[in-house]
Structures are given as structure tokens and as C-alpha cells.
Amino acid sequence: MLDCLTMKTVVENLAMVRHRIEAACSKVGRDPAGVELVGVTKTVPVDRIREGVEAGLTILGENYIQEARRKKELLSDLPVSWHCIGHLQTNKAKFAVDCCDWVETLDRESLARELNRQAERTNRTIPVLIQVNIGGEETKSGISPEDLPAFFNMVSEFERLDIRGLMALPPFFDQPERARPYFRQLRELLDRLRQNAASPGKLSELSMGMSGDFEVAIEEGATLVRIGTALFGGRI
Ligand SMILES: *Cc1c(COP(=O)(O)O)cnc(C)c1O
């Protein structure tokens, strides 16, 4: 199946993904304009990324900061915004602030502190998502649901960090339907944060859903879906 995707052009894949996003939205009465597509480009060659952007992608997601820096330089002529979606080491915060528009993986205090410091240095405000370890998996990063309210309050004190919502990678299942309870839980966590937030309107983003399960995530309220394989084909 992956080979077959690889052979299709990015343009064809993008049209198919958009179609599937629209279908998922109409199933639950959502406006497709409320779902943004993040094209996940880890290991994808720049020519193929360029094809995607020329076909209409406006947000790219990168896992590794070094790779993002290199690609951003090669693609600097393209009007896209870059999201950091991988685990971010504190000593890479400087580069993340230099090359990413958003950081979707804020998962600890030391990183918040350093991102804030670097944002101050460049006189920027960085939109961030708090990563939640929704399945309580040891191998995954993220704040536990129990610790989220306190972590949110702590991050809110950093003037250069603009918290826009939550991000999660639920446990992997062959059947996407099984991820539904996790997506729903993330939405409920965001709802609860909004009830106590000073500016709830800003807390509107739920980054959840990947190639295998984005339709279910959209049905549960995703506003950002992070899609790699379904757009660019299998990764080498
Ligand atoms: C790789 C990756 C994705 C995209 O995964 P696909 O299954 O290829 O769509 C999304 N989010 C994160 C954090 C990833 O690392």
C-alpha cells in the first residue's frame, strides 16, 4: 500500500487527503475551514516538499530541528509556516525559535523557560501547543492529563509563549476507531482548560490525527491534522 502511495504524485495524494478531510467534516457537521493540514516532511526530499507546497500545502511539520533548518534554507522562497512536531531538546530551543513558526511539542518547564528566553532574544512571541501524553505511555513525551492544569498555569506566566492549544500522539492502533477515546479525552482536557483560562478564545487548537486515523480525530474536534505518509508516500 505504501509503494502504491509513493508512485502517486503529491498533488494527487493531497487532493485525496483534502477530500477525506471534507468527508469527515461533513459527517459531523463541521466546516472544513476549521481543519488545517500540516504536511509532515521528515525524511521527505525537498523536491517532493516543494511539489506539495505548490499544490497548496501551507504548513509543514518537522520532527528534527537540524533537518528543518537545512530544508528551510533550501525552501526559503516558499510561503509556508513551519511547525516543530518532534521532541525538542532544550539545547535546540534556540534553533527552533529561529526556524519554526510554531512549537507543537512543549512538554516540560525547562523547555518553556528556554523557548521564552530565546523568543525574547529575537523579540518574538511563539505560538505553542502543550503536548499531552494522552495514553500514559512511557515511550512518549508529554504532560500527563493530571499535571496539565498546573503546567498550563506555569507556562501562562511566560510572556513570550502564546499557548494556542494541545497536541497528542495517542497509542498506535491498527483500527483508527480505537484511538477515538484518546482524541475525545484531549478535546475534553482543552475544554476544561478553556473554562478557567483568562483568554479562552485563544485556546482553540487541537493537533491530533495522522495518516492512519485523521478522520476519527476530525470527528472528535481536531483543528490541525499532521499527515505524512498519506501525502508523501512511505518513508525510507
Ligand atoms: C511522523 C509523524 C506524523 C505523521 O505520521 P504519518 O503516519 O506519516 O501521517 C505526525 N505527527 C508526528 C508527531 C510524527 O512524528
Give the secondary structure arrangement, pairings included.
Elements: H1 2-7, H2 10-28, E1 36-40, H3 46-54, E2 59-62, H4 65-74, E3 81-84, H5 93-99, E4 102-106, H6 109-121, E5 126-132, H7 148-156, E6 161-168, H8 180-196, E7 205-207, H9 214-219, E8 224-227, H10 229-232
Parallel strand pairs: 1-2, 1-8, 2-3, 3-4, 4-5, 5-6, 6-7
Bound molecules: pyridoxal-5'-phosphate (PLP).
Summarize the structure in words.
It is a single chain. The protein has helices spanning 2-7, 10-28, 46-54, 65-74, 93-99, 109-121, 148-156, 180-196, 214-219, 229-232, and strands at 36-40, 59-62, 81-84, 102-106, 126-132, 161-168, 205-207, 224-227. It has a single domain, classed as Alpha-Beta Barrel (TIM Barrel), CATH 3.20.20.10. The protein is built from ten helices and eight strands. Helix 5 (93-99) links the parallel strand 3 (81-84) and strand 4 (102-106). The model has no long low-confidence stretch (mean pLDDT 95). The radius of gyration is 17 Å and the shape is globular. With 236 residues, the protein is of the alpha/beta class. An eight-stranded parallel β-sheet has the order 7-6-5-4-3-2-1-8. Helix content is 42%, strand content 17%. The protein starts with a helix and ends with a helix. Pyridoxal-5'-phosphate is lined by residues 40, 42, 63, 85, 169, 210-212, 226-230. Pyridoxal-5'-phosphate binds next to strand 8 and helix 10.
